[in-house]
Specification:
two-stranded antiparallel ribbon; mainly alpha; about 475 residues; Serine Threonine Protein Phosphatase 5, Tetratricopeptide repeat; single chain; about 5% strand; 6 strands; globular; about 45% helix; 18 helices
Length: about 475
């Protein structure tokens, strides 16, 4: 395990960008004398976006952290890769697990990059002021996204919102209360909504509707339904997004920035020495199906069987390997080397927004609009309107639709946490599967990486972990 923690990670960024930013245009530049003009800020903004591609984030580990613990996906061979994925699947994750260590490290690297831009951009002249405002909004979005992930994975986490020039300044501060971190997330996204443009000519850039959708999801997580509806409805009312007609088209390479995609992390095959792709297709393919396949984060067969015969998503989203093991068909086979996947990782999609709005309306006891939003997604998949007749039935119908629609996109574990059903659902899942595992409250958070705790004793471990 790389025993790297927030303070050391920040120090490495401050000292030299050469290792972390090999794929970025700021390689080998000393950040202490960098970011002096618009060109250099633009380069560093790109570095912050590139940080989302890191293996600890959307290059590999975030999709695993946010789905393997759920009833959606599993690890085919739990002992592969030292058992670090298997620990997520079997709820025996240890504090030295490299997935959580790398996720923590890469999250704070991204936060530091956003902090650096936000700290300096105000004093740097831009030819077009709206571009300058947009860049600040983009960095606030990225910082909010990373903190939103961190609090859902680990609970209270250190809140750092200033550029760190002295790593010792953050030793001893401990973990910031969850509510305070959420306040900062909401503040960042509210300001991002106000400063981001409605459109962009650069694929992959954050726009206003992305900040609105993420802020709506934050409020939904906090069960603030009026504010969740306000921001999610704004995405619909913008008319910028919509469902593609055919489910088979959504994840085609040609449609990676279609009207249905609100924000995604961009990957490309065969670029820059095959360094701009991800290894997810290889890692998340069933064993013996492609070279080096590891069988991580595979859809469970029970989910595959939940799709009815008329549901077009059964083959569009999930396929069956020759071995009979399901795989996520949203990841497309690379045209170059197998570990150089070009499929973007979608973080916010219009179908998700519609299903969140259905949840908001249902929890607000507005059954008719809840059904309308739900049916938009169902009808696109070739299904008839829902027959849910009350709030309880509608809640179950929305839950099922999210499982079927969003498989492989890293939502299910967070959905179970948000709805307070993780313990009940997972214990029933293990019991029905004949697996002797029972989870309790402490399993709802991952352990804080041991390297962080060993370095800063003010960081206390989550209950139930050593």
């Amino acid at each position: 395990m790389k025993n790297i923690f927030i303070a050391l990670g920040l120090l490495m960024i401050l000292a030299s960008c050469s290792k972390e930013l090999d794929q970025d245009p700021v390689t080998s530049k000393d950040v202490s004398v960098f970011l002096r003009d618009e060109t250099e800020v633009e380069e560093y903004v790109n570095a912050a976006y590139a940080n989302l591609q890191y293996s600890g984030l959307y290059g590999l580990y975030m999709p695993a952290l946010s789905e393997i613990p759920s009833d959606n996906t599993f690890d085919e061979v739990p002992l592969n890769d030292g058992g670090m994925y298997g620990e997520l699947d079997l709820f025996n994750t240890i504090a030295s697990n490299d997935i959580i260590a790398t996720n923590w490290k890469d999250s704070y690297k991204g936060i530091q990059k956003a902090n650096i831009v936000l700290n300096r951009i105000g004093n740097i002249p831009y030819r077009v002021d709206s571009v300058k405002r947009a860049r600040a909004g983009e960095m606030r979005f990225i910082r909010a996204l990373l903190y939103f992930n961190l609090v859902r994975l680990y609970g209270d986490v250190p809140l750092v919102i200033k550029e760190t020039t002295d790593v010792n300044a953050y030793f001893g501060q401990g973990r910031t209360p969850l509510a305070t971190v959420y306040d900062q997330i909401k503040k960042d996204l509210t300001e991002a909504v106000d400063s981001l443009p409605a459109n962009t000519t650069q694929p992959g850039k954050v726009i206003k509707t992305a900040a609105q959708a993420l802020l709506g999801k934050v409020y939904l997580t906090l069960k603030d339904y009026p504010n969740a509806k306000k921001y999610l409805a704004a995405v619909v009312e913008s008319k910028k997004h919509g469902l593609l007609t055919n489910t088979n088209d959504i994840f085609l390479p040609a449609n990676e920035n279609s009207k249905e995609i609100i924000f995604s992390v961009q990957f490309s095959s065969g670029i820059n020495g095959n360094s701009e792709g991800s290894s997810m297709y290889q890692q998340f393919s069933p064993s013996a199906t492609v070279s080096g396949a590891k069988g991580h984060n595979l859809p469970v067969r029970q989910l595959y069987n939940m799709y009815t015969a008329t549901d077009t998503r059964k083959t569009a989203y999930v396929g069956l390997a020759s071995t009979g093991i399901p795989f996520c068909n949203k990841l497309k086979k690379p045209a170059t080397v197998i570990a150089d996947g070009g499929s973007d990782f979608v973080i916010l999609r219009y179908a998700d927004v519609l299903l969140m709005l259905a949840e908001v309306e249902n929890e607000s006891n507005n059954l008719k609009p809840a059904g309308d939003y739900l049916n938009e997604v169902r009808n696109r998949a070739g299904l008839l309107n829902t027959t849910a007749a009350d709030i309880t039935e509608m809640r179950a119908a929305i839950d099922l639709e999210r499982k079927l629609e969003l498989i492989g996109e890293g939502h299910r574990w967070f959905d179970l946490l948000r709805t307070g059903t993780a313990i009940t659902v997972m214990n029933a899942w293990f019991s029905n599967s004949g697996v002797p595992i029972t989870i309790d409250q402490h399993h709802l958070l991952f352990p804080i990486p041991i390297g962080q705790i060993n370095t800063d004793p003010s960081i206390k471990q989550n209950p139930g972990y050593h």
